[in-house]
Amino acid sequence: MPIQEDFSRAELEVMRRVSGLPIDELALSVASNLWRASQLFKQKLEREVLREHSLSFSSFSTLFIIWIWGPIETRDIAKSQAVSKATVTSLLITLEKHGLVKRKAAKSDKRLVLVELTSAGRTMVEWVFPKFNQGEADVAGILTEPEQLELARLLRKVVAGFQISFEEVTA
Amino acid sequence: MPIQEDFSRAELEVMRRVSGLPIDELALSVASNLWRASQLFKQKLEREVLREHSLSFSSFSTLFIIWIWGPIETRDIAKSQAVSKATVTSLLITLEKHGLVKRKAAKSDKRLVLVELTSAGRTMVEWVFPKFNQGEADVAGILTEPEQLELARLLRKVVAGFQISFEEVTA
DNA sequence: CTATTATCGTTTGAATTCAAACGTTCGATC
DNA sequence: GATCGAACGTTTGAATTCAAACGATAATAG
Please, are residues A25 and A35 in contact by the beta-carbon 8 Å criterion? Predict the structure, then answer.
């Protein structure tokens, strides 16, 4: 069935109903498939990998960022995840409750909070990340390798375009 | 600066820190840029278009689906949005509170609930959708038209791959 | 026809999310 | 140094999200 390579059934129906309106149908296609792919990806990872470790997608992403960037400030977690500072505070409270991260005040600037993994947190990331990456590979594996490279390039260009347009909107 | 076309600075740092581990770095690139692009897209639309109408991204998406598919069952909204039925119930409660949708029992099957727009809901969608689509066009416009076509095709293939793999996981 | 099973939408409780408001701390200017 | 504005993380309140449990209805089996 060549429908997946061309247009999905749902997409065709949407197009039919908006035809006549001055709508950018290509942009609509890009946006709706971008959103849908990201949601399916998130759900797959939460159900198949993170659930058994009582981690949400956001919790794991935060844990991963802290693992990569060592002691890191709350505001930088927020920027790197494209979420608000309030969200990060909530996530850190949950993660701290589970003993995976610890917060400490910065010496130089008393407003700052430095976050780092506990040893339990480090163990968790190092245990879960390979399985998480396998899930990513399952999804990416739907495409050929040249297609994966091209998809990564195009998405990177979109992300870069955002950063140029707004440059620090996250309050 | 060719960094956006190649690898972002953050991506390079992540790669550096996971080098040595048996990680599929291409899949990691695809997944992280997919997630980031989708989140930035959602935030842009919520802030620049939906916020002034007191609509969340999910609320508008739901409204749009109901606009397209006329009277529709709760379970079909859930499937089309890739969210749980419980989420749809919550969204419908909010939308009903704002007078944008109405629910009625189906005659044939008393378990079903049919959802449709009120006239206020229809007015809202028809007013907001063009502006929403303009936001989509802004984002897609970061890419050339051939790139947009290719991105849509690749994402569609990924989405189709999901549907083949799981086929109705949404409980 | 009755009993079992499956499906529907909802409720419950907990986590995630954000704008707005807040107190605290830093920096800049006078 | 004192004052004003900016930036930090947190709190608050409301909406979104989901798994699990639930009652009601339908479909299937016996």
Answer: no
| Helix A85-97 and helix A57-69, axial crossing angle in degrees, nearest 10 | 90
Q: Residue B42's closest CA among B28, B63, B58, B53?
A: B58
Q: How many residues make up chain A in this entry? A: 171
Computed over every residue of chain B, the mean pLDDT equals 89
Of A4, A155, A161, the CB nearest to B33: A155
Neighbours of B110 (CB within 10 A): 8
Residue A31 burial (CB count, 10 A)? 24
Quote the distance between the C-alpha of residue B13 and its chain's center.
Answer: 29
CA distance B92 to B83: 13
A and B: number of Cβ contacts within 8 A: 226
Between CA A94 and CA B11 the distance in angstroms is 26
pLDDT along chain B (171 residues), means of 10: 58 86 93 95 94 95 93 93 95 95 89 94 95 96 96 95 57 37
β-strands B101-105, B113-117: how paired? antiparallel
Global confidence as pTM: 0.91
Which residue's alpha carbon is at the shortest distance from the C1' of C7?
B111
Distance from CA of A117 to the nearest CA of B (A): 16
User: Between residues 112 and 141 of chain A, which touch chain B (CB distance below 8 Å)?
Assistant: 129-130, 133-134, 136-141
What's B1's DSSP letter? -
The reply to whether the CB atom of residue A86 sits less than 7 A from any atom in nucleic acid chain D is yes
The Cα–Cα gap between A29 and A31 comes to 6
